[in-house]
Amino acid sequence: xxxxxxxxxxxxxxxxVTARFALGTMDxxxxxxxGAPVMARVRLPLVPFKAIGGGAQQVSGLWFGTVxxxxxxxxxxxxxxxxxxxxTGAVGSDLKLDAATLAYGEVLDITSGQLSMGAGxxxxxxxAGKMSVPEPSGxxxxxxxxxxxxxxxxxxxxxxxxxxxxxxxxxxxxxxxRPQVTYEGLDDNVFATTGLQFQGTGHQLKNALDLLRxxxxxxxxxxxxxxxxxxxFEPYNREGWAGMxxxxxxxxxxxxxxxxxxxxxxxxxxxxxxxxGDKHCLVKANRDVWCxxxxxxxxxxxxxxxxxxxxxxxxxxxxxxxxxxxxxxxxQAPVGWNHGYVAALARDPKAxxxxxxxxxxxxxxxxxxxxxxxLEAYQYHFPDAQVFLGLRSGPAWHGDVKRSLTDVIDFxxxxxxxxxxxxxxxxxxxxxxxxxxxxxxxNPDANMMARLVAERFRLPGADLPLVSTGA
Length: 471
What we know:
This is GH18 domain-containing protein. The chain is α/β, with parallel strands linked by helices. The protein contains eleven helices and 23 strands.
């Protein structure tokens, strides 16, 4: 059986189209009526067609889009070439056969279904629009390096995962330093003086970073700073951000200078001691949001920008998934404790302007979370920042996570369509540290995700693994 897409009189075989997308998405954009925009989405199966009883054919894993006009969701309909067969579906349901007309609108949600048909060769899906394949416009792929999973012998940096990154990685972020850095020089133990769990001295980490830059000229190295201490993520902890003073900033600056690091990633993940009800973030009647951590968050961002100014340094911020749901996005679902978490940054012109890069932690949320919508919200509130959608490697059972290869393609296409900075992966070594195979399209490891992103973004070396010791 062959599925073709008929568009504007031209027929494109599905196999040739999907080859351009890895596992891809076809976005069909064109006028449905005078002046009316249309966008439809056709997902091709991740597994081959298979015969079922009675000579029928079944397509497993066919994905389709739900369209919306203004208001309630409408059914997405695909019409066969002769007009005699229409495939319909709604969010959360299987595809069904029905005689109806094609519905148009903007795709907001993606769901899966199954299509069963009688034997008979091929089916042409006729869509009234022009096929448009969005091409990347400089999107990048960044990764977070989990220092605690690195190779244990710092005397052999040529075998580090860190020094064997492929050319499609443009920024690697070292995770995690604590706010109270006490580093004094290259002879210091890195873990003891910075919190970065590298088991070696400053000399040994510098050797590794120098080798990385020799092998990958132009790669940027960032350092992520995250709160620690016995109270975990509780704000105003004296062992966290609240206890960071000028001595700590000077020690951090020395570490950055000696390691040649020019990017700082503020991973501020503080919460109130109780997140019940409105104890953390309160959405007001005017859709503004006020959170328990507003004062400290703004102070931290401003302090890091002042201590590490442009153009020498870039400042990144790791942002909660629904943190930009305020103002025009205040009623965006789902609603959780971090709904509108960064409103205080957007309200403060200096804090808003301080941020160069936003990394959305778009990998853990409640059902109904739309990463592309979160991306649009952050772009709206922080128009001068590069915004990156986050992917997550590691065990599939760790949280409610979007992590199939289909999801990776959806993330990549959203970044391209919305002209975002690109995608970032947390983390480089989670799969190496906690193997959880067998791996496949529905349970990809970091290598599978990274190579798919590299191909979709047209980045160099897409055939190379992300996680390698060079052996």
